[in-house]
Design goal:
Blueprint lengths: L5 H6 L5 H8 L24 H4 L3 E3 L6 H12 L7 E3 L3 H13 L6 E5 L3 H4 L2 E3 L11 E8 L2 H4 L1 H9 L4 H12 L4 H11 L1 H8 L9 E6 L3 H16 L3 E6 L2 H9 L5 E7 L4 H7 L3 E18 L15
Parallel strand pairs: 1-2, 6-7
Antiparallel strand pairs: 3-9, 4-9, 5-8, 5-9
Helix pairs in contact: 9-10, 9-12, 10-12
Bound molecules: 1,1-dimethyl-prolinium (PBE).
């Protein structure tokens, strides 16, 4: 059951009842601030969540664009002065988020859409008036240069691969609920034959041509890469998918060591990787529109903008 830290709360001046009710969400609603916080009236001052979170933003893999963007935000916003972005893995971030929500504790994670967490929990993006996290992103497909001549059918499938947020989230959610990625991919494919046939349109089946795709173990990219790999397998390709860190993923395609990837978040998230490798690989355009990154918090937190947070010093 949810327990409020009354001592800490009482140190936070001017907390309104409304604010507490929103932040508390206790079952009986009988708890009250009166007498505890000594506050009266409707002050709009925000809770100092920072202190409760040790001024830590829960990040993911160190090489992820969203982590770099969060570090940029820490540099940019006075409200984040003295904060740190911890790095671990997407799985550890999701576990920390789930645990915080279970205990109704404050947490700020580096988040992104499409992601199953929005179907699973009530979450919101913090407004980012300084634009540290960019605007809407596309997820793009990158091929090694020369792929079109070498493996024209694989190239064409990669080039024609395009789906929507709801599609990707369906696959992600099934994986999150326990399905093997390959199985979730197969299920989605058999339920979406029209979409899939628009990706294979104009291609010929092959007999065991090898294709290697790379990706990062982000939930969104596990979903997309498995779907594309399954589609290729059904067309007769022998497909290997290899998880790497973000930088090495870009590098492997740019060096021509592997055939391609469907995990390029642009223009902002992987802007620095694109700048480094963009002229050595072939940009096959968007495979998904309307992606987004940012700082994500549970709805029960009474904070709407990065600017509402408090610096540690
Ligand atoms: N992500 C998911 C990646 C791109 C895809 C947002 C975690 C990143 O931040 O680099």
């Amino acid at each position: 059951m949810f327990k409020f830290d009354w001592k800490r709360l009482s140190m936070t001046a001017g907390l309104s009842l409304t604010l507490l009710a929103a932040g508390c969400g206790s079952d009986d609603g009988s708890e009250s601030t009166e007498g505890d916080s000594g506050s009266e009236g409707e002050s709009t001052e925000e809770m100092n969540y920072g202190e409760e979170m040790d001024y830590e933003i829960t990040g993911i893999e160190a090489g992820a664009g969203v982590v770099a963007a969060a570090q940029d935000a820490v540099e940019t916003y006075d409200s984040l002065s003295g904060w740190e972005v911890s790095t671990s893995s997407s799985g550890a971030m999701a576990a920390a988020l789930g645990e915080a929500i279970e205990n109704e504790e404050p947490i700020i994670v580096t988040g992104w859409t499409p992601h199953w967490k929005f179907a699973e929990y009530d979450l919101k993006y913090l407004e980012d008036p300084e634009g540290s996290f960019g605007d809407a992103e596309q997820i793009k497909t990158m091929a090694k240069s020369g792929l079109e001549d070498e493996k024209p059918n694989a190239y064409m499938i990669l080039d024609q691969f395009m789906w929507e947020t709801a599609d990707m989230e369906e696959v992600m959610l099934e994986i999150q609920n326990g399905a093997e990625p390959e199985e979730a991919a197969k299920n989605w494919i058999s339920n979406n034959e029209d979409k899939v046939s628009s990706w294979t349109e104009g291609t010929e089946e092959v007999d065991g041509t090898e294709v290697e795709l790379v990706y990062v173990n982000w939930d969104s990219e596990i979903a997309s890469t498995n779907v594309v790999a399954e589609v290729m397998k059904q067309q007769g390709f022998e497909v290997t998918i290899t998880p790497l860190d973000n930088g090495p993923m870009w590098e492997a395609v740019a060096n021509g060591e592997v055939d391609g990837m469907v995990a390029a978040w642009l223009p902002a998230t992987h802007g620095s990787q694109f700048e480094e490798y963009g002229d050595q690989l072939e940009d096959l355009g968007a495979n998904l529109e309307g992606a987004k990154i940012g700082l994500v918090v549970p709805e029960y937190m009474d904070v709407d903008s990065i600017e509402d947070l408090q610096p540690s010093e």
